């Protein structure tokens, strides 16, 4: 009887201790949940203008590489990172990540490439190419002087002083990326993740989608990586024709912004301009400032990473062939290399990124 009472007493004390321990763990988890940076987890997608203002301070890379830096997150592509990327080359297979130049006017291509012959024979031929490459048609590389926040481009340089109609971009110009990009790249094939040919316009991509792809692909985005997001935009266009992608496109939700900073992504590329349109209800950011001026130019991910993180962006990539190449090899990390035109005052450049397997 005494032994049984002793055992019961010990069991009761153990249960009390375990209950207290469980309550303590739950309390700690509650505190962590309430103090986390919103958007950094896959739980809450709500993003307000107040969040964006807070992130401008919390997540900023201004001054990280010195007050005069104009390369931004390209600094994350170190010699060691380049050597790591070079080691990914196994069979020498290459694939372009650019869409063919669009020369016919369409609702998603108001400014087609101009290719004019200037001579043809008898012993040679020449032509002249012209393009207004910013926009949603032509694969291009955005310089850090392409967008501004609070009247400043990346690293706090005043736009009115350094990016003007007369002088072009004397800070944040594309010339700062003249040495090109040579790093490990990751393709996140979100249609393949969701077992569809393409994402419908207006489909948001959340942190949980990115991390689900990492798990499925068996890899993880690391510092200095280029990150490419496939939505299937060109597959849909080939089947259904062009549409007003400036009003409705699949893309990253604003809540992924802290995740991009936490992973120290060096370069972001997508098949349009990165941000989902129209905004889902959880994105409570006005598309225009009350005075009619631009606030985030209705592309918070694209514009935030350019201005606050100092992260160059590649718009209008064509990742369909890359998707096939990755799937055939069952590998989603590869070497990517590219170099923009060395325009001393340019705000960007047409680009033809090359994946090497």
Notes on the protein architecture:
The protein has helices at residues 2-35, 49-58, 79-86, 159-162, 190-193, 207-217, 233-240, 257-262, 300-309, 320-329, and strands at residues 47-48, 94-96, 114-120, 125-130, 140-142, 163-164, 168-169, 181-189, 204-205, 226-230, 251-252, 267-270, 283-284, 312-315, 333-338, 348-350, 354-356. With 357 residues, it is α/β, with parallel strands linked by helices. The protein folds into 2 domains: 1-35; 47-104 and 136-356, 3-Layer(bba) Sandwich (Glucose Oxidase, domain 1), CATH 3.50.30. A hairpin with a 4-residue loop joins strand 3 (114-120) and strand 4. The longest helix is centred in the first third of the chain and has 34 residues, at 2-35. The model is unreliable at 1-12 and 14-42 (pLDDT under 50).
Silhouette: globular
Q: What separation lies between the terminal Cα atoms?
A: 74 Å
* Helix content class: 25-40%
CATH topology of the largest domain: Glucose Oxidase, domain 1
Any idea how many domains? 2
Spatial strand sequence of the major β-sheet: 2-17-15-8-10-12-14-5-16
Strand content: 15-25%
Secondary structure class reads alpha/beta
Number of strands: 17
Please count the helical segments: 10
Mean pLDDT: 89
Q: Gyration radius, to the nearest Å? A: 24 Å
Pick out the low-confidence regions: 1-12, 14-42
The largest β sheet comes out as: 9 strands, mixed
Q: In CATH, what is the homologous superfamily of the largest domain?
A: Putative cyclase
CATH architecture of the largest domain: 3-Layer(bba) Sandwich
* SSE sequence, one letter per element: HEHHEEEEHEEEHEHEHEHEEHEHEEE
Regarding CATH, which class of the largest domain? Alpha Beta
